[in-house]
Specification:
The chain contains 24 helices and 15 strands. It has 620 residues and is an alpha+beta fold. Strand 1 and strand 2 form a beta hairpin. Helix 2 packs parallel to helix 21 and helix 7 runs antiparallel to helix 20.
Length: 620
Amino acid sequence: MAGYVGKIAFVDLSSSMVKKEVVGESIYRNFIGGVGFGARVLYERMKPSADPLSADNMVGFVAGLLNGTHTPMASKYMVVTKSPLTYTWGDSNSGGFFGSEIKAAGYDAIFFSGISAKPVYVLIHDGEVEIKDAAHLWGKETYDTVEWLHNELGDKKLRIACIGHGGERCSLISSIINDDGRIAGRSGVGAVMGSKKLKAVVVRGTTPIEIANSSELQRLRTDILSHLRDVEQLPFIKALSGPGTCGGPLGLVPGGAAPIKNWTLIGPEAFPDYAKIAGANITKYQLKKSGCGNCPINCGGMVSIKEGPFATEGRKPEYETIAAFGTMLLNSNAESIIKANDICDRYGFDTISTGTVIAFAMECYEKGIIGKEETNGIELTWGDPSAILSMLEKIVKREGFGDVLADGVERAAKRIGKGAEKCAMHIHGQEPGFHDPRLFPFRGLGYVAGAAPGRHMVSTASIRLDGEGKLGPSSELQKPEGENEPERKGKIYAMGASYSQTFSDSGMCLFALSAGTQFPLVEFIRVVTGWDFTAAEAIKTGKRTLTLRQAFNCREGLTSKDFKLPERMSQPPTMGPFSGKVIDFEELKANYHRAMNWEAETGIPSPQSLMELGINKSDS
């Protein structure tokens, strides 16, 4: 079968049993890969109401369709599970080389259930699956784990996804690390691995991926690479291939998109030193650039601070990390942000959630809700890099007050009480990305309308469709019309979210979608698979996955009514470039639901929508 290996593996860690299954082509076409394929498996095979940290939960590592095909910017794989942070559908993507190597190892996806009696890692090599002892790895940092496994197994080309102390201790804001600093950070996925005593997943292989039309694939590759290299015509690509996303604060703070001081302030007047933690003030520490597999942009990099209290060597921080440990904390010390990023990578923590929970603690400290007695003597003063890193060390080791914060802001606020809930910025337990929804309302819709709440990238395609009027050359990817503006906005978001879902499930980096490239996704799928795939099918396939994830949450007793923006993120701002702007996010959400053929208020998929998308069928 072109484009796929055609097999998936199920590993029961309780019994050490491995089951291998062949998958039919119709299932791949209906769900593509990534989250789509993962949603189908979890919806059909997981018990409803499963405790996310129990043996009944599953966690899957799922490749995208275009992983391993040499398609430019197709490096993303997905981790899927029921989130222990939100008790909703959970997923998180990561780049690097791991996704392509899953397929090279002989599978399109690997799913884990059960709980091992002892720490283990799982080695998948050319179709063979081995469960191996990891007692000697338990307690090691992520980078040390990777180095140890490379040496132990005698192969430096192994691709490894592992957890650090965060996952081992089931911190609900812990992450999974692969390829020396590529992160599946959201939804508490690291805690699920830790609960199963699964230290690492190791993949390696030589399984070839059949391509339906190799010559046409090469032509498409040549055309898109030529276009991507014409950076003067693509300002966003130029920025990514220059400083990368660490340049983000230079535009997002003046534009009012970057939250400041735990979402209480916006605009450059609130944080005039923002340029000190952005662009050249980060890249001056850069040793070399780096990128994911088959990507010509190389937006990442390795950085080094040679001496001083923040001496370290690790990955260049992305915008979200700079906002988390910079603007959110009024911290203008770039070196401390680089250090914080490296600590999170080594211990396996999501920087968005970790920075947010420190901002929460600082606000509680400022308001007298907590004091030095609770914080183990640390004076949580805004902008103090020493205090920030001291509390970060407590969090990643679950020591003292750090144990209170290590499960995110919602649970920390409940443990503290005394009005701390008003300082906790989250959507149903998930700390949101750092893009103010009042500037880009579709960002806010992404935070509250997705099955995995609080996520910022899901709205990328909808924002572009609304602004540019199209997502690609096909007439089926043009901005839809509506009888009135609210209805039109709902249709725009529904189309953008659906197309974006298929884009992601194909293994594509969403930067390819937001870069002004009009990336020919449909054409790549056609030449790789041989299918007569269309843009309309891409939208319908994405809609199927969005609806199935929604159905997963409904089965867990949750609806979109449970997902709301914190008050300070939804009320008209009193300062900054869009002061006084009023957005009715509930109306936006209702119109999106109608466009998806879901119940307007709750987001429950209608029986008709389930039937039209074939979700009530086995698809086998």
